[in-house]
Please model this.
Amino acid sequence: MSIRQTAYPDVLPDFRNLGVMARILVAVNALALVGVLFAAPDPRLVFERFIEAAAFLEPLLLINLTVLFVLSPLLARLPYPAGLLAVIVLVVALTAGYHAGVLNIVPLGSLWRTLALSALIAAGVLAYLRLLVKAHSPALIEARLQALQARIRPHFLFNSLNAVLALIRRDPRR
Model:
């Protein structure tokens, strides 16, 4: 049995949702760990390098999440492609400001690499969150169908009982 339903439109994630925030935090930290694993010359230095990366990354990540939390209602009003672009530009702008503020002398190569990396990570996390929504979409449609069927069943039973009662009243012997 199938009911025609329109597919869920693409929307930005709700940055006020604690689950979305946790997924972003875990994804970015996991990417940082993977980056450190590939960049560390010695496996014994991985933990030390990850702590250094996290010391730079965590305040920036919290600033980004706070700004996205505050601007979430405004971003939700934008069409999906414009919202994606706005989030990525916002993340890159905050990263540039943070990078310039934390490091007194900003090497240009380091700044461009950091900005490119932040744009790629933001785009990757947004794509991951969109994929999660698409993956759960069939489950939501199935849940709606089951809820509709649960509402129909009592009406069917009630109508059947009324039909039987009407027949009994008309011809009790039968």
User: Anything to note?
Assistant: The radius of gyration is 27 Å. The longest helix spans residues 108-170.
